[in-house]
Design a protein that fits this description.
The chain folds into two domains: about 180 residues, no CATH class; about 80 residues, no CATH class. It has about 290 residues and is mainly alpha-helical. The protein contains eleven helices and two strands; from the N terminus they run H-H-H-H-E-E-H-H-H-H-H-H-H. Strands 1-2 form a two-stranded antiparallel ribbon. A hairpin with a 2-residue loop joins strand 1 and strand 2. Helices cover about 65% and strands about 0% of the residues. The chain starts with about 20 loop residues before the first helix and ends in a 5-residue tail after the last helix. Helix 1 packs across helix 6, helix 2 runs parallel beside helix 5 and helix 4 runs antiparallel to helix 5.
C-alpha cells in the first residue's frame, strides 16, 4: 500500500507537457482546478474526463501510475461520497429510509459526481505538476510567479524552497516508511489485522523511528546547505532562466477554451434541459444543486 503512493514523485520524460515552462504548468493546473469546480452536470464532467484522458496520453505517463495515485485516496473518496449521499435531501420520496438515514436519488447522483470530481483533481494536478515537473523547476516557477511579492519584503524564495523540499522528501519518507514497516514485520509486528484501535496502536512503533529519521534528514540537509554557503536568494544567479515558448501559449489557449466550455455548459444547461424531453436527457443535463 505504501509503495502505491506516487504523490510528489517526478517521472522524467520528453513529452510536450514535460517541455512546458513550470510557470505555465502551475497556471494550467490552477485553471484546470477552476474548471473542475465549475462543472455542475454529468455532460460537463464527461467533457472533463475526456480532456483529462487526453492530457494523460500527451504526458505519456503510464496509466498504472495514475491508478496507483488513486488507490491511496479511496478512503477520502468513500468519505466524500458518503457525506454527499447522506446530507443531500431530495424532492421526491427517499429510496431508502432507515432510522434517521434518508437516501434520495439526488444524493446518489451528487455522491457519484463528487467522487469523480476528487479523482479528476488528483489526476489533473498530479500530471500537470509533480509527475512532469522536477522539484527544482517547480521551485523556480513558484518563485517567479510570486516574485512581485518581494516588493512587500515577503521571502518568496524561502517559501518556494520549503515547498520544493517538502515535495522532494515525500517519496523519500514513503520509502523510509516501507523499510521500517518491513523491519517491524520481520520482528512480528502486524499492521493489517485486528480492530481499528489495534491497528492504530500497531502504528506507534512505526511513527517514532519515522519522526526521528525525518528530523535526522532535515538536520543533514541543513548542514549540507550551510557547507555550500547557501544564503537564500541574496545575490543568487540561475543556471537556467525560465522562458516561455509557442507551445506554452498554445496550452494556455487550450485551457482557456476548456474553462469557456465549462462555463457555457453551466450557463446554458437549464435552457438545454427545458428543450430536451425524456428522462435520459433530464439525468444527463441535470445540475448539482
Amino acid at each position: 500500500m505504501i509503495s502505491d503512493i506516487t504523490l510528489g514523485q517526478f517521472f522524467p520524460g520528453n513529452s510536450p507537457i514535460h517541455k512546458l515552462d513550470p510557470r505555465t504548468k502551475i497556471l494550467l493546473a490552477i485553471a484546470y482546478i477552476v474548471a473542475v469546480f465549475l462543472a455542475d452536470s454529468p455532460v460537463a464532467f464527461l467533457f472533463l474526463i475526456l480532456f483529462s484522458v487526453v492530457i494523460v496520453l500527451i504526458s505519456r505517463i503510464s496509466m498504472r501510475v495514475i491508478l496507483r495515485a488513486i488507490r491511496p485516496i479511496l478512503f477520502i473518496l468513500i468519505f466524500t461520497a458518503l457525506i454527499s449521499l447522506l446530507m443531500t435531501v431530495g424532492e421526491d420520496e427517499p429510496l431508502v429510509s432507515f432510522w434517521i438515514i434518508r437516501i434520495y436519488t439526488e444524493g446518489i447522483y451528487r455522491a457519484v459526481l463528487m467522487g469523480i470530481r476528487v479523482i479528476l483533481l488528483i489526476i489533473g494536478s498530479s500530471v500537470l505538476l509533480t509527475y512532469t515537473t522536477s522539484p527544482i523547476a517547480l521551485t523556480d516557477g513558484i518563485e517567479s510567479l510570486l516574485s512581485p511579492l518581494k516588493l512587500f519584503h515577503i521571502p518568496v524564495h524561502i517559501f518556494a524552497m520549503m515547498m520544493s523540499i517538502a515535495l522532494r522528501f515525500i517519496p523519500t519518507l514513503i520509502e523510509e516508511t516501507e523499510k521500517i514497516m518491513n523491519a517491524q514485520k520481520s520482528r512480528g509486528a502486524d499492521f493489517t489485522t485486528g480492530s481499528i484501535v489495534k491497528r492504530a496502536k500497531a502504528l506507534i512503533p512505526l511513527l517514532v523511528p519515522l519522526v526521528i529519521s525525518a528530523f535526522k534528514r532535515a538536520d543533514e540537509l541543513a548542514t549540507a546547505m550551510e557547507c555550500r554557503c547557501y544564503r537564500g536568494d541574496k545575490k543568487r544567479t540561475k543556471l537556467v532562466k525560465l522562458q516561455m515558448h509557442a507551445r506554452d501559449f498554445l496550452f494556455f489557449a487550450v485551457f482557456a477554451a476548456l474553462i469557456a466550455a465549462v462555463v457555457l455548459l453551466r450557463i446554458f444547461t437549464p435552457a438545454i434541459l427545458e428543450r430536451l424531453p425524456g428522462a435520459f436527457w433530464q439525468i444527463v443535463f441535470h445540475r448539482i444543486r
